[in-house]
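stuck on this chain:
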Amino acid sequence: MEGQAAVNDRIGGILHADLDAFYASVEQRDDPRLRGRPVIVGGGVVLAGSYEARARGVRTAMGGRQALRLCPDAIVVPPRFDAYVEASRAVFDIFRDTTPLVRALSIDEAFLDVSGLRRLRGPALPIARELRRRVQAEVGLPISVGIARTQYLAKVASALAKPDGLLVVPTDGELQFLHALPVERLWGVGDVTAAKLHAARLRTVADVARQTPGELAAIVGRAAGHHLHALATGHDPRRVESAPARRSIGAQHALGGGKATFAEADLALLALCDKVGRRLRRAGRAASTVTVRLRFGDFRRSTSSRTLPRPTESTSVVSEVARALLRARQDEIERDRITLVGVALSGLDDHGTQLALPLDGEADPALDQTLDLVAQRFGTAAVRRGSHLGRGWEPRSPVQ
């Protein structure tokens, strides 16, 4: 029987994560009456359809009248772009908390390169499983993930995993996986190119792979011919490039489905401030704005922020400001069911500078630097706040 280590060695490190029926899923998340029912977002033109509507033939960009003829019992809702942007930001926060190598393709999908995280976080498969769990638990949305050695294969795998699935393309089974697919699955093959390939009796990726680049060039043109031949034979040299310098650094923690208390939210916020403070200093940045994000049981989100007189890299300053923002919401937190707390630092400066506020006196950078060194060498659990001891708080992952 093949051991798990051997299985992990056959798995690539590229993830393609794609939210399922994104707009419609947000609507179903926020309105329980829509769950399990066919939902169409948009009136005159379909912007998105739930999987229940898609099963009846409804497709994106279809005319509204045609969609209702196919699915007369569909519930049509107007788009709420602010809700979609907020959900996307929350999901991408999780992506960037997973790996710094994230390439966004759209508001609801991205490539993540986790190949360099094996020693720190483990192999790609458990990372992908944890990512899916977090998106569901923290944002309330289903997401499908494909895992492969290349971006192209990972994207195909996530499409085949839908809805709400996970599919791995093992490195020693790539061509077997690829060659059984129809030519329409090749990246860049639309209706026109597919028609040209079909006219040449090329219907599967295997058919395309058997052609030379020159033969394909005669059918679809030189550039497209070389591109399709490379993909059909398993070659995709593109890398997941790092995004430009971050505009913010953040972290969040789900508090579970129960009624978390203000004290529990405060403890979680403290640990998150420790985490983002380490990241801020490791990146050589300083932040001028602290934002606290809350999510409640009905998936309602709330944010509050404070801009500082000068940028800071101090955990003590960040935590003091963040806790003040949280205390301002104490009545709401104790009244409603809070399920998630997060903190984000923005207004980033490339040069760390120390801010001294009257509320905390002169902050000592040596303390932060010492704690960073301890965490780097022995892990984040090596030094804990006294308030966290015996309270069940555990860091979600090793220092990143």
